[in-house]
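Review session, final week

We close the course with one last complete record, chosen because it touches almost every idea we covered. It is Tripartite ATP-independent transporter solute receptor, DctP family, a protein from Paracoccus laeviglucosivorans with 323 residues. Go through it on your own first, then we will talk.
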Amino acid sequence: MKLLTTTFAALLCSASIAGACEITLRSSDTHPDGYPTVEGVKAMAAEVQEKTGGRICIEVFPSSQLGEEKDTIEQTQFGVIDMVRASFGSFNDIVPVTQTLSLPYLFTSPEHQHAVLDGPIGAEIAEDFAERDLIALAYYDGGARSFYNSQKPIRTVDDLKGMKFRVMQNDVFVDMMAALGANATPMPYGEVYSSIQTGVIDGAENNYPSYDSSGHAEVAKYFTLDQHLMVPELVAVSKASWEKLTPEDQEIMRTAARNSATLQRRLWADQEKASEEKVIAAGAEIVKDVDKTAFIEAMAPVYAKYVTTPEAQDLVKRVQETR
C-alpha cells in the first residue's frame, strides 16, 4: 500500500509539473528510445524543466515519429518543430561547413573531435547554423567508423589494396576507398551480411554498436580500429522558437544542452565498450596497432578534390592543429 501511495503521489507530482508548462518544445530524433542521443536530450529536458520550475518542457519524439532527419531539419528551420537532433551529414546541403567536418581522418580521436567542437571552431560553426535559422545548442558524439572484413587483419594501407568494401552511396566515401587502394561497392545496408558471407564483398565499415547489432561480426571477424570517419551529431533549436525565450531561459537551455552533451558522450562510450566486449567474446579480432599516419596521408587527393576554397582549407588546418 505504501508503494502504491508513493507511486500515485509521484504521478500526481509529474502531472502537476506537466500541467504547469507555459512553453512546450517538441524535439525530434530518428533513433529509438534508450539510444544515447535520445537519452541526452531527455536529460536536457529534465534539467530545463527543473531550473525553470516547470515553465519550459521539452517533449522528445524518438524513432522518427516526426519524420526523417532531413525533413525534420527543414521543419525546425521553419519553426514547425522546435528542436532536432541530427547528424552533420544530414546538414551538408544546408550548412556547407558540415561537409568539411565530415571528411575522412579529419578527427584523429573522439577526444580530438570534442576539443574542436567545444572550442572556438565549434562556436564559429554555430554562427553558420544561426544564419540558416537554427541555433546550435550541443554537439553529440556519433561514434567512429572503422573497417572490418572476412579475410585478414588490416594494419597498413597496403593491406587494403584490391579488397572490396561496402560503403554508403557517397562520392567522398568512394574516393576515400580509391585513395586507399581498395574498391568501393555501394549497396544497401541490409545486403551487407549476405554479401560478405557469399564473398561478393570482403567487408564494410561502421562503428562498434552497428558491427555488433547487425551481426556483421559473425561473417567478418577482423575489425580494424582506424576510425576513418567521425561525423558529429547536433542538437539544434528553431530560431523562431529560440527568440520567444527570455535571455535567462536561453542561458538555462544552453547550460542544460552542454551538460547533456557530457552525459551523451559517456553513454555512447559505454555503448561502444559493451559492443566491443560482446564481439570479442564472440570471436572477433580487434586490430588496434594500425599505421594511422599512413592512412591519413593517403587522403591527400581526397582533400585536394573536396577542400577547394581558402576558407575550407583554413578550417581543416585549424582542426588538425587543435589539441
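Two points worth writing down before the exam:
The first helix runs from residue 2 to 19.
The first strand starts at residue 23 and ends at 28.
Good luck, everyone.
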